[in-house]
Design brief:
The chain is of the alpha+beta class. It has one domain. About 45% of the residues lie in helices and about 10% in strands. The protein is built from three helices and four strands. It has helices at about 10-50, 85-90, 130-165; strands at about 70-75, 95, 100-110, 115-120. It has a four-stranded antiparallel sheet with strand order 1-2-3-4, with helices on one face. The longest helix has about 40 residues, at about 10-50. It is elongated.
Length: about 180
């Protein structure tokens, strides 16, 4: 018994190819838009690093050419409430550098040094742009929640410094003769 298989016409195939090309173009454009947004969020997070208490990576733990700039850990497990599964699955550490770039530290040695530093791009370590955008947006929202408490602590420190002015002279180390 012979089965009858309907083959698509050349016009139907051309239409399918055109739709697939449109989908691919949209995917590329959407990824570019997400990466632009990620860069903006990373820029803001650099300013928020103290509010988020992002740990500074010891320069000695980085490869030689990366030691000149500072890096802060984004996914060191210190903020588990904002991490998403894709971020937890990274085999390494997501960091933010002083140039507002998100990087992946990987290939950790037995001494605790990182062997490779890769600039993050969509798909790196299985983290898509949408996942990274969600993670950075969560970090930003968390910084916003935390900011009032940090500001209150700074105000208390400032008031303590102001209260000590009565005990000193005019300058920071002045002595009365």
């Amino acid at each position: 018994m012979q089965q009858h298989v309907e083959a698509p016409t050349p016009k139907a195939l051309a239409d399918l190819v055109e739709r697939c090309e449109q989908i691919n173009r949209f995917e590329t454009q959407l990824t570019a838009a997400e990466e632009t947004r990620i860069a903006a969020l990373a820029s803001g997070l650099l300013v928020m690093r103290q509010v988020l208490e992002l740990p500074l990576i010891d320069a000695e733990r980085l490869p030689m050419r990366q030691r000149r700039i500072q890096h802060w850990a984004l996914s060191a497990g210190h903020l588990p409430e904002v991490e998403i599964p894709a971020i937890r699955a990274v085999r390494g550490l997501l960091v933010l550098d002083e140039h507002e770039q998100v990087k992946v530290l990987s290939q950790r040695t037995w001494r605790g040094e990182w062997g490779a530093v890769t600039l993050w791009r969509s798909g790196e370590q299985g983290v898509r742009a949408a996942d990274m955008m969600e993670f950075l947006a969560r970090l930003t929202a968390f910084a916003q929640q935390r900011a009032p408490d940090v500001a209150r602590a700074l105000l208390a420190r400032s008031e303590a410094v102001t209260a000590t002015y009565a005990f000193g002279g005019d300058g920071p180390r002045s002595r009365k003769a």
